[in-house]
Amino acid sequence: RHTAMVEDEDEDPETKEKILEKLMDQDEVDPEPVDETMVKKMILTFEKRSYKNQELRIKFPDNPEKFMEAELDLNDIIQEMHVIATVPELYHLLVELNAVHSLLGLLSHDNTDILSLKHFNRTELTDIDTLHESEEGAEVLIDALLEGQVVALLVQNMERLDETVKEEADGVHNTLAIVENMAEFRPGLCTEAAQQGLMQWLLKRIKAKMPFDANKLYCSEILAILLQNNDGTRELLGELDGIDVLLQQLSVFKRHNPSTAEEQEMMENLFDALCSCLMLPANRDRFLRGEGLQLMNLMLRSKKLSRTSALKVLDHSMIGPEGSDNCHKFVDILGLRTIFPLFMKTPKKMRKAGISDKEHEEHVCSILASMLRNLKGQQRSRLLSKFTENDCEKVDRLMELHFKYLEAVQLADRRIEGEKHEMVRRGEILDDSMEDEFYLRRLDAGLFVLQLICYIMVEISNAGISQLQQRVHQILNLRGGSVKAVRHIMRGDLSPQLPGKTLDAD
């Protein structure tokens, strides 16, 4: 290298000038326009080189020198084909000329450098902005990729990669980006992708004994995306023992906070995935058997960053009749000692973690409401007796929350009524979408928490413990409230109720 530098220094200045001029002239040449003819020509060249490479590899399997040049030629044309990503309206040519099939075939090429790392996975073809530029072209491409079992091939390809090699780790990251782009463009493919081995690979990668890195974070993100509003993928995760994997990975955070912002993001993704899974009733039993309640209880007591999300998970695990076993188990593991201090006072650390008082109080009240709905016998008695302790201090706190949220909702209602009045005065029509928007604003003001609180009030008042009923009525009368108003909040024009959390006063 030193010798070359010396030679460069001795080079004639005139020669240097000519070289520079030549380079500048090259820059000034307009690039060839990317049109249908150019794309067809590229695809034809690609097909020829791909076939030639395949032929030479079969002919000389043990003599790389014989097919190396053909492999480099193939490599070059694939690089040139990146330009097709700038014209999504021509994607249909990739499909019509069978190039998608050939590209997918290269995913299982013996030389992983050919496609997996530097080309197909560079994601230009599936970049979400590009896909939206030409919806029609994108639809055709995605259809062809799915027909060619693209996810199964990508998963097989990732299994071949060694993530201790930087280029191959980048290949995994880029592959996940392709999946994310396709899922964002067409959410319906999540079920198919999960079933084609992606779910299994993600779980395996998440639990792999490797240092935390960008790929583990990305895996947690893709997993959370796959589980959004999708009972099919939730069921599959449950069948693959994914609940146990999530609990094992989260258990690290019961005594230690994440060490970086990225690790915290991964922790939150895993908690989101767990909450999503628990929307499926069958997974609540798997969570119970995996000792998920014990882990959440420990997290709530340890006062680490995981506490906020643990409360949310606990809430999801107890909802509905299918949450009954979890409610009983929670009382058995002395969970009441954990939840009531959180009910009595919203911890300051929760606020620091970016959780509003309303969100915290909603989860705690939802947990208490689920337990009052589901608990039977001795466990129910233990819960009710908690409300009588220390001169019914928990009833006082319940009533304090009742009036806090009642005032907030009434204020929102007055504003909404004012807006409705103005709209009518201007001759505007109040359609269903406007009514839905107003309802969401009432929920945002605290209507749902208020309904939960009212449900708890009615349950403890009707539990046959006179001091609880007397205290509830006494405070209602003092503050100008009434049982009738409470029942109205629960039964009033509050459609549509939130799924899985409807309240009745009966």
UniProtKB/TrEMBL annotation:
Cited InterPro entries: ARM-like, ARM-type_fold, CTNNBL1, CTNNBL1_N
Domain Beta-catenin-like protein 1 N-terminal, first and last residues per copy: 12-119
Biological processes annotated in GO: gene expression
Keywords tagged on the record: Coiled coil, Nucleus, Phosphoprotein, Repeat
Gene Ontology, cellular component aspect: spliceosomal complex
Compartments, record wording: Nucleus
Keyword field contains Nucleus: yes
Assembly: Component of the PRP19-CDC5L splicing complex composed of a core complex comprising a homotetramer of PRPF19, CDC5L, PLRG1 and BCAS2, and at least three less stably associated proteins CTNNBL1, CWC15 and HSPA8. Interacts directly with CWC15 and CDC5L in the complex. Interacts with AICDA; the interaction is important for the antibody diversification activity of AICDA. Interacts with PRPF31 (via its NLS). Interacts (via its N-terminal NLS) with KPNA1 and KPNA2.
Function: Component of the PRP19-CDC5L complex that forms an integral part of the spliceosome and is required for activating pre-mRNA splicing. Participates in AID/AICDA-mediated somatic hypermutation (SHM) and class-switch recombination (CSR), 2 processes resulting in the production of high-affinity, mutated isotype-switched antibodies.
Name of the featured protein: Beta-catenin-like protein 1
Annotated organism of origin: Pygocentrus nattereri (Red-bellied piranha)
Taxonomic lineage: Eukaryota, Metazoa, Chordata, Craniata, Vertebrata
The encoding gene: CTNNBL1
